[in-house]
Amino acid sequence: MAKTKLQKKEIIEDLKQNLINQKAVVFVDFQGLGAKTLSELRNNLKQADCFLKVAKKTLLELVFESLKEPSLKKEVNNMQGELALVFGLKDEIVPSKIIYQFSKENENLKILGGIVKDKEYKFLTVQEVIDLALLPSREEVFARLIGTLNAPVTNFVGALKGNLRNFVFILKEKVK
Hints:
Elements: H1 5-21, E1 24-29, H2 35-47, E2 50-54, H3 57-66, H4 70-78, E3 83-88, H5 94-105, E4 110-117, E5 121-124, H6 126-134, H7 138-175
Antiparallel strand pairs: 1-3, 1-4, 2-3, 4-5
Helix pairs in contact: 1-3, 3-4, 5-6
């Protein structure tokens, strides 16, 4: 059933608000993906504070036009297939990681590009989205940093314990 102008305006406004509030967006082609698989993808995204929205290209072009982003409008116009947007509201890397892992398991899900927003929107190519997905997560980076900062102290304590242990061993041998 065709949507009314009011419904389309609501969809455009919703997409616009989601784009304004997002940290990252990944564009995917989900043509040929079954309903069960798509539902599984939505659940995976929901657990990571991300969500998927299916959008018509024409409505998305209107959104980018209202945001005064003609380059993004052009990129969307060049995309082929059924278009869905994966929004990451808290982290820039998480949506691309989830989509990349899911696309490796399901060949019908294809990454088409992405957007990250700092002060302005920047379009990401498919390879840039994959590169972003291969980066370590924020938690992994923090864990590595803490491990690196903790290593000298741990090694120093280990060296002191070794000397103390050797001293106690020598005293035991002396007593015997």
